[in-house]
Amino acid sequence: MDSLISAAARALSAGDALGALKRVALRDDAPALALRGIAMAQLGDLARAKALLRNAARAFGPKEAVARARCVVAEAEIALALRDLGGRERELGAARAILEAQGDRLNAAYARYIQVRRLLLIGRLDEAERMLADFDPGPFPPLWRAAYELVIAGIAMRRIRTEAARDALARATKASRQAGIRALMTEVESACRILDAPAARLIANGEERLLMLDEVEALLASRTLVVDACRNAVRDRGAVISLAKRPVLFALARALSEAWPEDAPRKALLARAFGAKFADESHRARLRVEIARLRRILRMVAEVNATQRGFVLTPRRARKAVVLAWPVEDEHAAVLALLADGESWSSSALAIALGKSQRTVQRALDSLAEGGKVQWFGRGRARRWVTSSIPGFTAPLLLPTPLAID
Q1: Distance CA 272, CA 323 (A)
Q2: Distance (Å, whole) CA 30 – CA 59
Q3: What are the beta bridge partners of residue 179?
Q4: Which residues pair with 386 in a beta bridge?
Q5: CATH for 333-387?
Q6: Which CATH homologous superfamily contains domain 3-195?
Q7: What's the confidence (pLDDT) of residue 389?
Q8: pLDDT for res 402
Q9: Cβ-proximal residues to 372 (8 Å cutoff; 6+ apart), any chain
Q10: Out of 3.60.15.10, 3.20.20.370, 1.10.10.10, 3.40.50.2300, which CATH number does the structure's domain 201-325 have?
Q11: Given this model, what pLDDT does residue 404 score?
Q12: DSSP string, 106-125
C-alpha cells in the first residue's frame, strides 16, 4: 500500500472525508476507488459511494479476497443507510466468513454489526441477540464499541428495558467521545433524545396522557390489563394475547377497555367494530358472535359480560383496564413510526420491515401522501419516502415485531 492510500485511510478512520479525497480523488485503482467510496458515504452521497465500492470490488483481483470482502461490507453498510433491506445478505455473510478466516477481526466484527442492525430494523430481535451473544467489544476501537452499544440500546428499547437502554447509551456516549467523530456523537445524541421522547399514549377513565418508555415498562409490569394498540394485543403482566390478525376483535377489546369500568353501549361497539351508522338485526347478531369469540380468547385474563345497554370488560387478575396507543394515532401509524427515524425508505424496505406486501404498503403511503404526512422523491425503483414533521411522533420504540397495518 503506497503512502497516499495509507494517509487517506488514516483520514477516513478519523472522520476526515475531505482530507481522504484530496489524496485519492483522481485515482482509479482498486484501493483508491474503495477509499473514495467510503469518503463519499461519509459526505452523504450514498448512491455515488455504493457505485464506487461496487467498482472497487470488481477491480480487486481474485487473490485479493480480503479487500473484496471489505468492499462488500462497506457497500452493505451503505445499503442499510439507504434502507435497501432486500440487499445482498448472502454476500455479506460470505464476506464476514472470509474476514474471520483471514484474521481480520475488526472488519469481521463490523460485518456482524451490520447484520445485527438489519435484523434490528426489521424486528427480528431474537436473531439479533443470538448474533451478539458471544461478541466481546472490549478489544475493539472506540468507534466499534460505540456502534455495538447503539445496537444493544436499540434492542433494549424495543424490548422495553429502559434501564438497560440507558446504560448502553451511556457507554456509547463515552466511546463516541473517545473516538472523537462528530457524526458518531450526533448519532448517539439522537438515540438519547429518542429514549427521552414520548413513546406511547395512555387512555384510561376517559382521559389521555403521554408516557415515556420507562412509564410504559412500569405499566406493563403492573397489575393492569393493557389493550396495546401499538401491537394490537391484550396484555396482563406475563400473558400476551395477540389480536393483530383479528381487527374486529381488537376494535371491540379497545372499545370495552376505553369504557372501563363502565359498560360500552352496543351502538358504540357496532360503530367501532363494523363502522355501522345504522344497526339492524344482522349487525346485532354479528356483534353477539364477535363478542362470544372475544370472550373465548380473553377468558384467561378477563370476562366480557352483557349489560342492559351493552357489554362490560371485567379483568380477572388486574386491578383496572387501560389502552396503550401511539403518541399520534393514525390509520397507518406503523408506517409513520418507521419513517420517523428521519431516513428515506423505499416501499419495498417498508414492506420487509412490516412483514406486509409491497402493494399494501404502497396503498398506505399513497393515503399518507394525500394527507400531506409523507413525501416522496425519485422515480420508479429509486423512489424514496420521507415523513413530514409530525409533532409528538417518536421513532419506532414499540415496534419489536412486524405489525399488521391493514
Answers
A1: 15
A2: 5
A3: none
A4: 375
A5: 1.10.10.10
A6: Tetratricopeptide repeat domain (1.25.40.10)
A7: 53
A8: 41
A9: 388
A10: 1.10.10.10
A11: 37
A12: HHHHHHHHHHHHHHHHTT-H
Length of the chain: 406
pLDDT means per 10 residues, the chain with 406 residues, are 81 82 86 88 84 88 86 87 76 90 88 88 86 83 88 90 94 92 86 86 90 92 91 87 91 94 90 76 87 94 92 92 85 78 80 84 87 81 72 48 39
- Measured distance CA(263)–CA(260) in Å, rounded: 6
Strands 384-387 and 320-325: unpaired
Domain boundaries, the chain: 3-195, 201-325, 333-387
How far is the C-alpha of 211 from the C-alpha of 213, rounded, in Å? Answer: 6
Going by their DSSP bridges, the two strands 302-306 and 310-315 should be labelled as antiparallel
Q: Which residues pair with 313 in a beta bridge?
A: 304
Note whether 201-325 and 333-387 share their fold.
Answer: yes
Determine the 3-state secondary structure of 347 from DSSP: helix
pLDDT of the residue at 87: 63
Distance CA 74, CA 157 (A): 27
